[in-house]
Amino acid sequence: MKAQYPLMVLFQLLCLQAFAQNYRKGEIDIEQFMEELFSLPETDDNYEDLYESLLQLYLNPINLNKTNPEELKSVYVLSPIQLTAFFDYRKNFGDLISIYELQAIPGFDLATIYKLLPFVTLADGSHITNKPLLERILTEREGYFMLRQNQVWETRKGFTPPDTLSNGRLTSRYIGDPNNVYARFRIQHSRDFSLGFTIDKDPGEKFVWDPKTKRYGFNFLSYHFTLFNKGKWKAITLGDFQAQFGQGLVYGAGFSVGKGAETITTIRRSTIGLRSYTSAMEFGFFRGAAVTRKIGAIDVTILASNAPRDGNIQVMLDTLEREAATISSFQTSGLHRTQTEIAYKDQIQELNLGGNLHYQSPDRNLQIGINSLYTKFSREYKRAPQVYNKFEFSGKENHIHSMYYSYNFQNFFLFGETAISRSGGKGTVMGMMSSLSKRLDFSVLWRRFDRDFHTFYGNAFSEGTRPINERGVYMGLNFKPNPRYNLFLYYDYFKFPWLRYRVYSPSSGQEWLARFSYSPSRNILLFFQMREEQKDRNISDLPRFQSTYQLSTGRKMNYLINLDYAIDKQWSIKSRIMASSFDFNNKTTKGFAISQDLNVDMQKWRISTRFALFDTEDYDNRQYVYERNVLWAFSIPALNGQGMRYYILGQYKVSPKLTFWARFARTTYTDRESIGSGLQEISGNRQTETTFQLRYQFNR
């Protein structure tokens, strides 16, 4: 069989000649990739950390000749049978000699290869790492400086002159200008080193040097320096970093998706270890030092962090009538626009000490690990007492410990993690992914999180935003009768044994999704998607004399029809129709949105445009839609009410080193005379936003 190998590779390379010409290595359509992973966004969550995680995968491609199943799963592209086929192929034929050899692997179609290529490589960089570190840094091609400016042009209330109250005091206003300024510097070489910083000023914040309020120019600064694979030392990092081990019950900082249009591969987390933190989000990361060292068959990780956090400090009298300062709430918005928000800045010190032991069997099919993390705040945390948060964390210290496993047996991938926090609350995740045949993939996941399970850096699979007070089971199917047709299905049932915010009784719910896609050729993709979610919530319009809360089940249906058509190598269009209905407390409301995209790509310059119309009866029917934006910026607006939205995005490559982006977006409403509320209110029916970005790449 090996004697036929060179001829087979030559044949595959000849077949892939057109494929290689059409694909410009290193590119990724971020919008399409995200839409294939997610079903429909349904919250106003900040997706910046998710985009940053995807950027880390993109900038640190996986070496296909050195990778293991756990690492290759982290990109969420390959099914269990494809993963098995890849490692069987490498075992039988040895290392790949060309990236385009992937089509020779059974089960690898062009669609899969196109998705995988931006995240993989065959280069090991061994000839580069022999040079001195300083020389490698100064000559590295993967280095850049990026500067971005964004602004809403209509005047928000926060930027108007303050009013005078009856007591002579002035009303609150933003102290800074409406510009959002973001800059990033980074030099990195995959699996070798990474160094850089990120600075950010949000709209309304003031650029000022004021040590008293802990503001030093830009309101946020993130920095890191990391070395990889230095002998026994797999990672050494200083500054800001994150960690991902197991299924995310203790350390959950990786590129995690959960429920989405990809119903199989996204339910599990991959152990990626330590990674540099480069986002502008001002929470969810460690600041200090961490190392990973290989000792025999075990990787040992130790981390230490001491980071400032924003929070509200209240001074109260204790039982001896002495003043005691406690934390009443943490502020995670990262905004410092008003005097009140500035007073929250860096009021709390958070100490973290933790570690991980990770074992991988010689055949790389079994992984077992132990996590531990100790967290201590500079002050005691006391929430405002409510019945629903009775079992939430309070106090000054927390520690959490877990054990996890991952096992690959042929086309079956088993994984799980169990953790216990200082309170005694437990959290457990167990799941399986399997290819039952070449055409059918199946996944199942069971989770249970006690109402007093406390994890600050966990990001496990869950219906809620945090793994607490939940039980559930998820099942997913992916049926692909031939390369043109694909059917995705999932069903998720969940229970909340204790009360939640705005749900003042134990409750339950369920969710299912069906997505059918048809792709007769690479330049045409048509899909139809339905999703239903049922979840209990309080009835807010009960009579005032009603002394107890009552629940009613809210039922939301989402519908989506999408057509992507590449007219030729330069021109492409996307047409989309979205609709929804929401039934709650014997009342039904509806909403819809339609959008049309036109994109042109001339390699040196690109233009993307969209025009959308929307009409929703209430906020429960808001329509989320992904938009193209400047490089590594996200845009997922919630279209609510009646109106239209359009944008135009341009990109021009001035030289091999310099690239420029510009974006103009406007939303015009026909059902209102003002937009937003509070200090964010705009007097008028339209909102206009511009974004400009420059990227300078070194050594090009």
List the helices and strands and how they pair.
Elements: H1 5-15, H2 17-22, H3 30-37, H4 48-59, E1 62-63, H5 69-73, H6 80-93, H7 110-116, E2 120-121, H8 126-129, H9 133-139, E3 143-152, E4 180-189, E5 193-201, E6 208-210, E7 215-217, E8 220-230, E9 233-245, E10 251-252, E11 273-276, E12 286-295, E13 298-309, E14 311-317, E15 323-330, H10 339-344, E16 348-360, E17 366-381, E18 395-409, E19 412-421, E20 426-435, E21 440-449, E22 470-482, E23 485-496, E24 507-521, E25 524-538, E26 551-566, E27 571-584, E28 587-601, E29 605-616, E30 623-624, E31 638-639, E32 642-653, E33 658-669, E34 674-675, E35 682-683, E36 686-697
Parallel strand pairs: 1-2
Antiparallel strand pairs: 3-4, 3-36, 4-5, 5-8, 6-7, 8-9, 9-10, 9-11, 9-12, 12-13, 13-16, 14-15, 16-17, 17-18, 18-19, 19-20, 20-21, 21-22, 22-23, 23-24, 24-25, 25-26, 26-27, 27-28, 28-29, 29-32, 30-31, 32-33, 33-36, 34-35
Description:
The chain has one domain (2-697). It is mainly beta. The strands form six sheets. The protein has a 24-stranded antiparallel barrel. A two-stranded parallel ribbon has the order 1-2. Residues 1-7 and 13-26 have low confidence and may be disordered. The protein starts with a helix and ends with a strand.
